[in-house]
Design goal:
The structure is a single chain. This protein has about 200 residues and is α+β, with helices and mostly antiparallel strands. The chain has one domain: Cyclic phosphodiesterase (Cyclic Phosphodiesterase, Chain: A, Alpha-Beta Complex), CATH 3.90.1140. It has 5 helices and 8 strands. The strands form 2 sheets. Strands 2-1-7-8 form a 4-stranded antiparallel β-sheet. A hairpin with a 4-residue loop joins strand 3 and strand 4. The chain is globular, with a radius of gyration of 17 Å.
């Protein structure tokens, strides 16, 4: 009997303790009031998401804990407010060398656990990938890793493509912070109706 594949995400949870949190809340509230924002997920920086066999979940917790044990807090510069053509309004972060190294360590450690699992969302016909992204998807179960990794924080989702540029410009004044503190690593899994946190480790 084959094991069920489960989506997991490893990243940085952003809550009230993070100085960027108030900026993010103000931006999302504005988008909800003026641009029909539909995103309700908790704020986070995604470092790697992938599908793994459910039986391997405990090992992913161990891996994240081990990586976090050797990782110190880091400040990452904020580049800009931007959007993706399919709807997300995002804050782009600098491709800091230490952050890229943390991302690479997480991918390298968790990828061997995924077996033949692939997240169905990455296989949807509407998805358009470059040849490099197709290769990353085949090798790592995610098209946006290593050279294709672009760190960002999603603050909202706008379903009207013709309003994305205006929405991006309108929320810029709400972003007053110039840095983002990476102060934890967290691991979440999919559940019916959303996500559930499996583990969170504070960095020192």
């Amino acid at each position: 009997m084959s094991s069920q594949c489960v989506w997991i995400g490893v990243g940085v949870a952003i809550d009230e303790s993070n100085v960027l949190y108030e900026n993010l809340v103000a931006m999302r509230d504005f988008l909800s009031l003026n641009y029909n924002n539909t995103l309700k997920d908790e704020f986070h920086l995604n470092l790697y998401d992938v599908a793994v066999p459910e039986e391997n979940l405990d090992m992913t917790v161990e891996i994240v804990s081990k990586i976090a044990g050797g990782q110190k807090k880091m400040k990452i510069g904020i580049r800009s407010v931007d959007y993706f053509p399919f709807g997300p309004i995002v804050i782009r972060l600098e491709k800091d060398k230490e952050l890229l190294s943390l991302h690479a360590d997480i991918v390298a450690a968790i990828n061997p656990l995924r077996g033949t699992c692939v997240e169905p969302g990455y296989l949807e016909e509407k998805r358009k990938y470059t040849e490099q992204q197709k290769e990353m998807l085949a090798r790592y179960g995610n098209p946006f890793v290593f050279g294709e990794f672009n760190p960002h924080i999603t603050v909202g989702f706008i379903k009207q493509p013709d309003r994305l540029e205006n929405a991006k410009e309108a929320v810029k004044p709400f972003l007053t912070q110039t840095e983002f503190m990476v102060d934890n690593l967290n691991l979440v899994r999919e559940v019916v109706g959303g996500y559930r946190e499996l583990h969170r480790i504070q960095l020192v």
